Queue: 4 jobs
Job 1
Amino acid sequence: MPFVSGIDTAMSRLLSGLLKALDSDEREAVSGDLLEARESPSASALQVLGLILKRQLDPWAGWRPWLLLITVALPLAVALSQATREFAGWSAIYSWMLINNTDAALLRSAGFWSGVRENSWKIGEFALVLFCCSWACGRLIAQLSRKAHMSMAFLFVLTSLFVLIAGIPSHARAILVHSNDRYFPNGAVFANAFYRDWFPLIVYAITVLVPLLLGFAHAEPAVRRPKALRVFFYCSTALVAVGLVEQPWLLMEMWSWQMIPVRFLTLPSLLPVASIGPACLLVIDVGRRSIRLRSNRSTRWTDTNWSQSPER
């Protein structure tokens, strides 16, 4: 039956993807056991899924994953998500001004296009900064959490999504604008459901979720990387963490609680500078993977031609 055949094909692909979540040695052993058992793809997928869940939950019996979660993962998730929330807020205002309030007269204005270029550059620049910082955070947590990286990624994404949707209560805003309305004074923008509800999720998916998962998925054991790159990576990630802590919204909150003096509010943002290191590492990583992929394709092509060549 075509329907049953389609289900088996989908389950086979799911099984192949689940097997990739296991270590290479364990993957080969599990694949051999599944071949000997000769069970259906759906039953095999359930067994592998159960094994993955067990492997991800076992490390949480110790103290290391909990320490990493409390001291690294959750603070980075909150800071990164709140930075994305702030970015989505002001970029939504610019987008609303450029998209929802454009007419034929504005399109003929040179000043309008100058504003489009300026605002588009600001939005694109900070989006790239968040992308690189999210990738660095994902790779850092994946390398530190090791065997618990999938469960740690789930908790990281869950926390960041909660902060993105719920937000953090602002004590500074109540002091400065004397209003609990988080959309004040841009209520006209966020009266639109798209900019209020969907735009932050789209920004989060592009600038945080995708690079974060890439960082988790592409993390390699530290022994496979040159020592210089390891040192550069950890230094760059430490600078990213400092940049996330030193954001204007967080400094403003700390000032409102009289935790820092007012002169700290004028500190320049380190986040754009901090993203340079992860950007370089991301380019290096993409280049290495491209070279490796081409090498593997070339090897397979050579082996195929050799096996198909007539015997002499």
Note: The longest helix spans residues 64-100.
Job 2
Amino acid sequence: MSTVVLLSTRRLPPTYFDQVREDLGDQNITIDVVGWVAPSAWVADKVNTFTLIGPGRMPAQPAPEPEVEASDEAPDAVIAPEAVAAPETVVADEAKIAPAAAEVAAAAPQPKPAPKPKPTGAKRVVKAVEWRARKARKVAGRMLPKAIKTSAPVKFIRGQRATNDLGKNYWERVLSRRDVMATIDKADVVVALDAGAIWAGWNLGQRKASTPVVLGLPAARREFDQLKAPAGNG
């Protein structure tokens, strides 16, 4: 039975692993996942192992549905609504209660809010510095046009920086976990599923030349097809 290790930094739903088996053309394939983010739901029945190396917790196992047992006892008697006497209700005269409530509310003095103490000494200096910093940020924000801040190159640079940081953190965590490295050593193919896992996949490819490390499921399908193909006589 073939084994594939999936490297992922995104939240994966349980149905995704059914799609993985379909894309790889093997319903009996063993799937081990090394995830930075926990899956969206319980996946113990979908994968062999799911090792969470990032923040968060794995989803709890759903509670089994309670079974209703048949009973031979007679059902409880049902009392007709007409047989129950309605209790007498006492309705107060609103015309008499409303003026009295208004008088009580008017007579109660409203407490005045305590004045907020003004900062003095060092606190006053700190408040002044914070106010100047906020004003400077507002001025800087107005100086930089919104078209530049929301332009495609700026968004690309910000996204690239975030992806690089995530990729390095993910690889460092993979490298520091012996159980993760042991799982990867048993794999026939290692697949980096997203951009955050590319750096880890590249480093694993440099360390393990005997195990194919690919990006995406289509490339993994080609590797499994080559493993299943009979060896040539040449």
Note: The first strand starts at residue 3 and ends at 8.
Job 3
Amino acid sequence: MRSYRWAILAVLAGLAAGLASAAVSVKLELIIFGFNIMYIVSPLLAGFMESYVAGRKYGASTGALSAILVFFAVNIYGWLFPAEPIQWNVFTVGGLLMAFQAAFPTTVNFILAAAITYALGLLGKGLGDRLSGGDGTVALEYGPHGVGIGIAAGEAVGDPGDLDGLRRLAVERMLSDAESMGGRGVVDIEVKVTVIGGELVAVTATGTAIE
């Protein structure tokens, strides 16, 4: 069983390294564009030191607890007891984001992944709506009315630039499917356009085959 003593010592080592680097940064006034580098360097150094000691002595991760503690410590100092007020600019905001990333890497990476996935989803939906002219479904009617005998379907996949041709091909395949059922026409046709990976579209035509 692992000794939790090394886990505690790893956190303390990270905390000491982070706070020491913050003290040096303040003492030497290591400021870039009105932003002290301790906001970025100190949490990173704390997390590195803690992870190094934990990996060598404890044999498992301790969650970079010292990086989180140092993150809060330097920000409390910087915002409540500043020797020089922090200047708001693009570098300040970027530095704070990097410091937050250093202290909470898993949370930030999850948020970024979720945001990117959501953005790609919106992009795909927008492309699909633009290609189909609405919600991705185009209602049609084709053939004489009669007794429904089943659902016929046809699909075509290809380049978005050939959307009209893909629609025709999907409808032709749907009609062939209806004919194979013994149908003489199709009604209540729907043609749906789906974007695949941002580079291809799949056009699916479905309808009720009738006798």
Note: Confidence is low (pLDDT under 50) at residues 131-143.
Job 4
Amino acid sequence: MVKEMQKDVNVLLLKQQIPFMLNVSHYMTDLVYTLYYTIKLQDDDDDDAAKQRHILELEGRKTLLSDEIYKLREQFRNLLNQSSGSIYGMVEEDNQVIDEDNNTSQDILRLIQQFKDLIDEELLQTVRDTNILLITELSKQIPERSTVNIHKLNIQLDNCLYGFLNLVTFIRKIPLRVDNKESMESIVNVIKDELLLSWKIELDLLNCKIFNLISKNEKIIKLFQQYRSSLSSATESGTMGEQSDSSIPIIKEDSKTFIELISWLKDEQVFGSIVL
């Protein structure tokens, strides 16, 4: 009975690791898109050697973070697919968790620790440094461009980093063994209904703000226009490449074109051959 109770307690914590890791992945992905946007704000026509080196440094940071996302998702998939103590071996029936593979509490404890270990100090530092770098870089653009949208993006980046660090710190402090089920339920509720929920809202806002800015950036949209024109030239069905800059601010209002823009960004501009 005690072992079964301990297993139920552990499962409560284990199940919260999945949405947390998914949101970490989404957060890092939007940081990469924000890096891409920041790079496009730079004057790449300037022959100044220092400015060109700076652009290369930003490109290097984007590549580094993209690689980290790939590694994190691969490790996450591997954990989910483990046969011993796998989460796929747990199904819910009448709100009760049933362990079909007779997984032991030790199996579940091991999985919980492995999930925790996915966010190691190196990854934590990379995410923190990238977030701070973006705020610094975007702040340089505010006086020149006089836009409140970039300022709002900076605030959102700050909120997302704060939520991320809060969650990581809280989860790391949770002991692997909590004998009282009510105590673990209380801990899980804090993660699910407070920390994770509020962070998810901030991440959704970050996603909206960065793609809103991307969809209005002339340099990015001109590249997108050229891409669409190259695809449609054979069939003579594409006209976007001939549109004037006045069409740029309203691209997000055309849902079909906006979806095409997102796909183009992911496949052709930001992640390329990296399979996420």
Note: Residues 2-41 form the longest helix (40 residues).
